Amino acid sequence: MSFHAVIPAAGIGKRMGVDVPKQYLSLCGKMVIDWSIQALLNHPGIESATVALAVEDDIWPTTTSAEDPRVESVTGGEERSHSVLNALRSLLQHVPEDDWVLVHDAARPCVLEQDLSRLMQLADQGTGGLLGVPVHDTMKRTDSHARVTATIDRNRLWYAQTPQMFRLGLLHGALKNALAAGVVVTDEASAMEWAGHFPQMLEGSASNIKITRPSDLQLAEFYLARQALA
Ligand code: C5P
Fold it and tell me: Ligand 1: does its nearest atom lie under 6 Å from the Cβ of 162?
């Protein structure tokens, strides 16, 4: 069984309010994206990484991952889903469609090796799935004036994280068809759900955060320092 990483990294990270895209911010002596890619490539079961980049990205060549022979780069697309689709299309040119891909956000630097292993074990049963954490807070829906209109039952609600792991050919087909049908695809699992599959949710770690706001960098520093001590 073969596993490959796919890293969508073509976002410009508007919510951070900084000039540098969030995946290129500095974190504990490396760039965020280098932590994310190396977390996957350090796993002995993962053979390669395909990174989707924005056009005219002149920071990528300065990363350490750009020099890694296991890493290939492709051009990303308008939305995350288009970026992932471009990477899958490129992989399909030299990898069997039954191989597994782990799609992982470039801005999730703290994913744990043991969680990757547990996710990859799903492949033994031929099942695709994703890491996530259960919702513990009370969930509210509001109207356009932020007035609460409903309380959502949080029972069996999850925050979806990455990696999200599926067979290369199946995910490529599901994403391509969902996008052609005009479906809004915010993660890989939603394309698979749309295609009639039932991705397996696997409880991961709350430390697998996505760098979104400036304060997330401090939290990521804390988690990486803790991992280094473990
Ligand atoms: O913006 P958001 O945090 O949802 O982005 C998640 C991941 O998708 C990031 O790693 C980002 O670089 C990537 N992305 C992409 N192509 C886009 C938009 C986002 O690869 N067009």
Answer: no
Please tell me if the CB atom of residue 8 comes closer than 6 angstroms to any atom of ligand 1: yes
How many distinct structural domains can be found in the chain? 1
- With tokens 């304060």, the residue in question is 215
85 Cβ inside 6 Å of ligand 1: no
Tokens of 135: 């919702």
Q: Which long-range contacts (CB under 8 A, 24 or more apart) does 68-73 make?
A: 68/37, 68/41, 70/41, 71/37, 71/41, 72/48
* pTM for the full predicted model: 0.96
Nearest in space to 33 (alpha carbons), one of 41, 189, 120: 41
69 φ, ψ to 5°? -65, -15
* Sheet-wide strand order for 3-9: 71-75, 46-53, 3-9, 100-103, 158-167, 129-134, 200-203
Single-letter code of the amino acid located at 178 = A
Structure letter (DSSP) for residue 154: -
**Both tokens assigned to 226:** 């803790």
Give the domain extent around 87: 3-229
Residues in the chain: 230
pLDDT digits (tens, 9 = 90+) for 34-78: 999 999 999 999 999 999 999 989 999 999 999 999 999 999 999
